[in-house]
Amino acid sequence: MAGHVRPANGPVRPQRPVIRASLRVLAVFAGALALHVAAQPAPDALPEMPAAPAPSGAELGVRTVEIPRASAKDAEGAPQTLTAYWFAPHAKAPAGGAPAVIALHGCSGLYTPAGADARALGSRYRGYAQWLSARGYAVLFPDSFGPRGKPHGICTERYAARGINGAVRRADILAAIRWVVAQPEVDARRIVLLGWSNGAQAVLDAVDASRAWPAGTPLVDRAVAFYPGCASAQKRPDYRLNAPLLLLAGGNDDWTPADHCQALQTAVLARQPQARFELDMFGGAYHGFDGTAAVKERNGIPKGRRYGTVTVGGDPAAREAAFAKLAAWLDAPHP
């Protein structure tokens, strides 16, 4: 057995002091190695892991920008602008420019309760920014709620009463696309939409080919939607896709049920047999399965005419599988 030596003449004697000393040395070495690894941008490391908290906005080099949204006016008739957060990729952009992700927050908004600026970006979004930047992507997080006086979200507002609806968020996405493609370091042919929950529903609205697309705004290369509410898109009789779509849903999601997304996929492929609409459903996973928070109940969520309780929280197996799928979708030359 390792840790024991046999003298030339005599029984085996355990060498406990040697074991303890060796373990101490190994512990110190392992700790130093862990710190070194954590300091390196790892393209395949998953964000928001408990042992490696997402870096701060300052560490990621985030830049706060203002995006003109000329298609909308505020109460005084002045052009409206959106605040957004721009993350450059870690590596130098290739000759043709870097691909870019426009990332759309959920109904809770971009921020922690501590504030409403780059320092208060939620760990989910900082983690994704790190992961995507390490893979060579520029990342833009537009804030659809803060400039409209609701920085910490609209989750408890009844759907029919929401002023920040699907049409508003789709217009925000179009403005974000125009801003991103104007950046000299970006490849305008490789724009990706990525959204979560309410932001994923906005992605569905943006890639709806039955709606007019404004002249001068490039189409996106591909789109990703994490657990969107699919019921609205499902009800549109001519909903079709103008970009390849990857949709990831939890099989146990009781906030945005996946059965609507399955029905949407069936309807789209019946209208567009050649469309690239990929649906991955993770059995046993709840809303927010790609995070690391413990599963819990959340109260006061509008469900039809009543408020109800939903289940939210991370699922380690679904999370790992979803990131593997996301990486493959982003890396594929033609999804």
From TrEMBL:
Keywords: Hydrolase. It holds the Pfam family DLH. It comes from the Bacteria. Residues 123-330 form the Dienelactone hydrolase domain. This is Dienelactone hydrolase domain-containing protein. It comes from Ralstonia condita.
